[in-house]
Amino acid sequence: MRARSASFYRPFWSKHWPLSRQLASVLAVCLLVNAALIIGAVEFIEPFVERQILHELSPSAARAYHAFNSDQVPARDDIAALIVESKALRESQNSPDAQVNLWILICVLTGSGVTFALSYTLLGRLGHGYINVARAAQSVTAGDLSARARPLVLASQEEVKLAGDFNHMAASLQRAERELADGTAAIAHELRTPLTILRGRLYGIADGIFSPGSKEITGLIRQVEGLSRIVGDLQTLSLVNSNEMSLDIKPTDLAEEVEHVLVTIKPDLEANGLQPSLNLQSSIVAADSSRIRQVVGAVLSNTQRYASESGMLKISTWCNANEAVLEIIDHGPGLPPDQSERAFDRFWRAEQSRARHTGGSGLGLAVVRAIVEAHGGEAKFSNHAMGGTRFAMHLPR
Q: What is the pLDDT of residues 263-310, one digit of tens each?
């Protein structure tokens, strides 16, 4: 409402007009200037022509002419002289002499010059917004993704919209490049730790430092499983970003899928000091059941990692006329202030000091949001009013 009021009270001359209105306005101004010049020329030449005509009249005819112009009755002889000489008067009006023609030519040339200068100045100011966009596009092509199209005062609505869309696109490209660079570095960091462990253990077994017993093999398998999870999460995000994720959509009960996940993960939750409290109402949606289980498992694993020893873990499902909802509330430390929007960012952790084995890969919640949005739903993660965090998944029915 505030933005609308500011736009409403903006001065008329500062509004951006459509290009067609700008061109029509320039043409109208040029026509008005031409009309003013023509009227001025006529007003300037008329006394000169009048003097030329009076110079050719006899004194009697001139007296009659002046009498008529001053609303007086001239003498009869003067009227007769004026009538006799009227033919010469008409010829003088229709055939001005060379000096009159010269003055007319000067006025026409002056009007043409003024009109050209005015048109060149006004029309030259139009279209500069397109030039700015073209220059910014050249800079972006050359690799400078920080280039932006500068706004202009006299830009048309089309130029303003084009510049705004271009700047939005350039900002998206810059953000994507930054995320790609950060993501590449983060992926390398996430893969380096398990690969280093695998390499060290395998070298140790090859050199006879470690015995290839079941304990060592189990540890190596866990590292391989961690690598597989990271690769699987990256593949899921890639499929979602390219709109190539295939979903096996069928009627799915959120309550049943939560129970399926809890069968396997509940012992781990209880071992980490979490007591699931269930309030599961049957909530049928059209969804991919395996992906829904992946979402539930990722959120519970995140809760187990960051809210361990926090006691009750409330898990609820319900539905209304438009959507089905899954809600998970813990009583852990919660998110840092003003960081709830970053909870779904790739490779972001609430505690940057955590090691990978305690802080996770940083991909779990990003995968959760990607899967939920692929179903046309919405995922929310925020601090709870009673302490801890609240995750909510809303899926259209």
A: 888 888 888 899 999 999 999 999 988 889 888 988 898 888 888 888
Domain 250-396 has CATH 3.30.565.10: yes
Distance separating alpha carbons of residues 135 and 126, to the nearest angstrom: 16
List the structure tokens of 146. Answer: 């920080």
SS3 for the chain is: CHHHHHHHCCCHHHCCCCHHHHHHHHHHHHHHHHHHHHHHHHHHHHHHHHHHHHHHCCHHHHHHHHHHHCCCCCCHHHHHHHHHCHHHHHHHHHCCCHHHHHHHHHHHHHHHHHHHHHHHHHHHHCCHHHHHHHHHHHHHHCCCCCCCCCCCCCCCHHHHHHHHHHHHHHHHHHHHHHHHHHHHHHHHHHHHHHHHHHHHHHHHHHHCCCCCCHHHHHHHHHHHHHHHHHHHHHHHHHHHHCCCCCCCCEEEEHHHHHHHHHHHHHHHHHHCCEEEEEEECCCEEEECHHHHHHHHHHHHHHHHHHCCCCEEEEEEEEECCCEEEEEEECCCCCCCCCCHHHCCCCCCCCCCCCCHHHHCCCCHHHHHHHHHHHCCCEEEEEECCCCCEEEEEEEEC
We find that the CATH architecture of domain 177-241 is: Orthogonal Bundle (1.10)
Strand partners, 238: none
pTM attached to this predicted model = 0.51
Lowest-confidence segment of 77-81, 214-218, 368-372 by average pLDDT: 77-81
> Residue 383: beta bridge partners?
389
Give the pair of three-digit tokens for residue 385.
């009013």
Distances 228 to 295, 301, 355, 367, 396 between C-alpha atoms, Å: 17, 16, 19, 14, 31
- The CA R_g of the chain, rounded to the nearest whole Å, is 42
Q: What is the pLDDT of residues 13-34, one digit of tens each?
A: 446 666 666 667 777 777 777 7
Q: What's the pLDDT score for residue 21?
A: 66
**What is the residue extent of each domain of the chain?**
2-126, 177-241, 250-396
Which pair of structure tokens corresponds to residue 54? 């009076």
